[in-house]
Amino acid sequence: MSSSPPAPSACAAISAAEKVDGFTRKSVRKAQRQKRSQGSSQFRSQGGQAELHPLPQLKDATSNEQQELFCQKLQQCCILFDFMDSVSDLKSKEIKRATLNELVEYVSTNRGVIVESAYSDIVKMISANIFRTLPPSDNPDFDPEEDEPTLEASWPHIQLVYEFFLRFLESPDFQPSIAKRYIDQKFVQQLLELFDSEDPRERDFLKTVLHRIYGKFLGLRAFIRKQINNIFLRFIYETEHFNGVAELLEILGSIINGFALPLKAEHKQFLMKVLIPMHTAKGLALFHAQVILPPQLPNCLIHFKLLGLLKFWPKTCSQKEVMFLGEIEEILDVIEPTQFKKIEEPLFKQISKCVSSSHFQVAERALYFWNNEYILSLIEENIDKILPIMFASLYKISKEHWNQTIVALVYNVLKTLMEMNGKLFDDLTSSYKAERQREKKKELEREELWKKLEELKLKKALENQNSAYNMHSLLSSTGAE
Amino acid sequence: MAGAAGPRAAPGAAGGDGDDSLYPIAVLIDELRNEDVQLRLNSIKKLSTIALALGVERTRTELLPFLTDTIYDEDEVLLALAEQLGNFTGLVGGPDFAHCLLPPLESLATVEETVVRDKAVESLRQISQEHTPVALEAHFVPLVKRLASGDWFTSRTSACGLFSVCYPRASNAVKAEIRQHFRSLCSDDTPMVRRAAASKLGEFAKVLELDSVKTEIVPLFTNLASDEQDSVRLLAVEACVSIAQLLSQDDLEALVIPILRQAAEDKSWRVRYMVADKFSELQKAVGPKITLNDLIPAFQSLLKDCEAEVRAAAAHKVKELCENLPTEGREAIIVNQILPYIKELVSDTNQHVKSALASVIMGLSTILGKENTIEHLLPLFLAQLKDECPEVRLNIISNLDCVNEVIGIRQLSQSLLPAIVELAEDAKWRVRLAIIEYMPLLAGQLGVEFFDEKLNSLCMAWLVDHVYAIREAATNNLMKLVQKFGTEWAQNTIVPKVLVMANDPNYLHRMTTLFCINALSEACGQEITTKQMLPIVLKMAGDQVANVRFNVAKSLQKIGPILDTDALQGKVKPVLQKLGQDEDMDVKYFAQEAISVVAQRLRKLDVLVKDREEPRIPGADKNLFLIPRGPGEDTGKGPACQLHVNTRDTLAQLEIAELVHFLQSRE
């Protein structure tokens, strides 16, 4: 509108763009948005704040007083502050920060300070700070690949708490047998829920923390694995949303790698019911590197994994198709020839679909298999089986594909295949047309069959109607009598 | 993959056991195993046809076992299968054989994919009703028990949805077992199963005996409502609605309300959100007394919750909550206990909260009456009308009619105007579009003088908006205004301004003139159309832009019915004929289309004239046959049928019409 007054400041940037097409572009909207941060949901429900008063330094205290002071400081650090309000309680916030720093320093440089009586206060302080209800996401359609994550507002304190937690767990004085009274299933459960945090810095700390706990608390291992599984299953089948999938997968990956053969049934189930179905998730690109593991699978599982990938092959997402092809190639790289024989038929049916994909990146990625020496040797060994499967689509796209690079690649592949078994190649070429006609005929037969079935259905429906009608008239006539 | 799956031959593939069925099952099963997923899917979707071809006996003995064995397939195929089987009872021989459908559905109810499982459960629920009581206990209940004690969580989640359908028809002993199974699922190890159980808790409570509700459901509810996972706790809130309906006030107060209160203060915002979201249902379920004692305080705390999501959900419920309060003492409760909180929401930091409130707050005026509205609500309306967020203002304006009924709109008009003007010029065209839609309503409420003075110029400015959707809406808006204020007003205020735009250098604006004429001609009537609009349209036929020219043709077609014979014959026709020879293809096409319509119109007018002259013959329809017709014209068709005839013939038709007219005038 030419007569409109200048738009209010915030809109100024977009209005020009908008005049062109009426829609703001995503990038424009994003540019407007500033890096945001959010505080915990739990915190905001708390009431008034107590002001902190600095305690004397630990290093200045006598060794008798030190323990007492240590606990006092831990208790002091249980008090939380509102970081969404950046001007409130500045002094107290600074005191807590300094105290936390001191605590980190204290447990990492001194020996013999983690005594049995301190465990309760330590865990209490950690729980009070890190366990909180994560707030609703500011950005419901958060796209981790494009959007800036919302950062945790209270990070200046929480970071130090995590730091302290790690030093505590890694301290030579740390005794799992005492700690297990406090670090129990409920504790771990709450810790796992924090993996949904949008802040990548927090998830990184959590990963290390959980790894340490898994290493030191044998009694919690099965529980941790099970809860992680539950989180994954919820992610796959219920919410499709969990920020910490990649981190949790990384932890599980290192756990499973540490297992010797024969593989436990639990891990087999994990692969079949979690890892493979996870390929269906929308955000696969974010954790694909972690999903691929474990690289060295026992033979029987390779078979299942390949079948699983074929089952969940993406139907509409070309980007994911390329990832799947990459994963297939990695498996084929280490597959044994006998295993290969078992899977070759369904596998190459899928590959023949991929090479003729109209998305050139998919076709290209599939055709690159022929650059892999080992795969090539597997194909050559089984050329009698593979060539008939691949031939039709290769032959077809060699003439029809829109992309010249693909046509060139297909030409090379066909040449390679021809060299492997020239006779079969010639046979297939000459029977190509007949084959197509046979397919068309089959198609016609199918149509015919269904037409007949439909007629039959109509006939039966009519019969039923008639009999119902007869019944009806019979009834009414008897009724009339 | 199922196609490639296997060596497993179709059962009874030989088929030829001498019966009279048309097709060997092997052929049909081949279709169900086709390598192409799409074809397999098509076959499954026509499974009923296949079953019909096989007959009930072979469907039971051959098709169903085959289906049970091929459960490993694409989820899409399985989904279709699960759906089909729900309607299969007739095809396996009626209720006596309904249990034959259970094995394949049982397998489907255990697959991982949620949609497949849900569909299988839905079908199982459906066919459970078709079981006889005996068959239910013999076949269905054991299936539910098997699922409920399955190893993998999927079967147990599926079981949760089946308890309530088999419970009412089971014997007492079996009922106890069913309750036992449900109880154990409510405390299942995996949160997925507990969630499923929690979501079915209300449904199950409804079919239970009242005693069992008290002794069994309430403890389960209590446990689920304090589950360690918030995703379970929030589902318990939903169950609360159903359970509350079943219990007496005393039991309710003692057993359920404490838990509800605790949910409203849950540490997870998701649970609190759920309470806010279900508030109206909860209110109805617990009745007026508990509402006053317990729910209102809970609602107050939700309205000042620390999470905007919760506040917004609660704000949405404000009107319903007030409406459902008992009429006696309602005003006082609202004014004293609700309004103070609402006042704070008006200046909330979050725009979603404010706009949620703005979408319902006007509704309070009818509940509170004139005086209270003026005293308490009006300041809030005015504040929201000045809100920085357009959505808030828009929500207020779009609900103006509620206030209009109670206090009249005049009270607001001073604040209304700046708000409207600002929205009318908002940078987002969807906001502008939304405000245009309320213009006729506003105009009606504000009166013609106020409108002319303040809003008319806005309405005209929209006509030259840079977004087509706005120009289009502005055109329709003009038509509605003319309907409201009358033709005289149109002639004085709107039409001249519209017609001036015909000379605008921008062809889009010139086209807008045409669109306005299309919209306004009917409301303005014949005189204005013929005298003021038509000349402009005709003049624009010489426009240098083809789009304008073919829109002239369209306009002439559109306003044709309003014009009289002379105008059509003397002015419109020559112009259309000229456009019919235009060098531009589209212009030619639309001109010819218009010619054919105008020709019909002319003929109809003649008929009417003739009808008047020959009063002996009643009805215009019969008269048609008396009119001389051109060679080759199908006399069997009335004019209406020929509206869309091939344009190639239209010039010829025009000639005929002329001939008729000529004859007519000689008479």
TrEMBL record, chain A:
A Pfam family this chain is assigned to: B56
Ranges of biased composition (kind: Basic residues): 26-36
Residue stretches of biased makeup (Low complexity): 37-50
Domain of life per record: Eukaryota
Gene Ontology terms, MF aspect: protein phosphatase activator activity
One Gene Ontology cellular component: cytosol
Region (Disordered): 24-51
Gene3D superfamilies on file: Leucine-rich Repeat Variant (1.25.10.10)
GO biological process, one term: signal transduction
Protein family according to the UniProt entry: Belongs to the phosphatase 2A regulatory subunit B56 family.
Function: The B regulatory subunit might modulate substrate selectivity and catalytic activity, and also might direct the localization of the catalytic enzyme to a particular subcellular compartment.
Protein name in the entry: Serine/threonine-protein phosphatase 2A 56 kDa regulatory subunit
Organism expressing this protein natively: Nannospalax galili
Lineage: Eukaryota, Metazoa, Chordata, Craniata, Vertebrata
Gene: Ppp2r5a
UniProtKB/TrEMBL annotation, chain B:
Superkingdom assignment: Eukaryota
InterPro entries: 2AA_helical (IPR055231), ARM-like (IPR011989), ARM-type_fold (IPR016024), HEAT (IPR000357), HEAT_type_2 (IPR021133), PP2A/SF3B1-like_HEAT (IPR054573), PP2A_Regulatory_Subunit_A (IPR051023)
Single GO BP term: apoptotic process involved in morphogenesis
PROSITE patterns: HEAT_REPEAT (PS50077)
Domain Phosphatase 2A Regulatory Subunit A helical: 99-282
Keywords: Repeat
A Gene Ontology cellular-component term: protein phosphatase type 2A complex
Domain Phosphatase PP2A regulatory subunit A/Splicing factor 3B subunit 1-like HEAT repeat: 288-369
HEAT repeat residues: 24-62, 101-139, 178-216, 217-255, 256-294, 295-332, 338-376, 377-415, 416-454, 494-532, 533-571, 572-607
MF (Gene Ontology): protein phosphatase regulator activity
Recorded family membership: Belongs to the phosphatase 2A regulatory subunit A family.
Protein name (Swiss-Prot/TrEMBL): Protein phosphatase 2, regulatory subunit A, beta
Taxonomic path: Eukaryota, Metazoa, Chordata, Craniata, Vertebrata
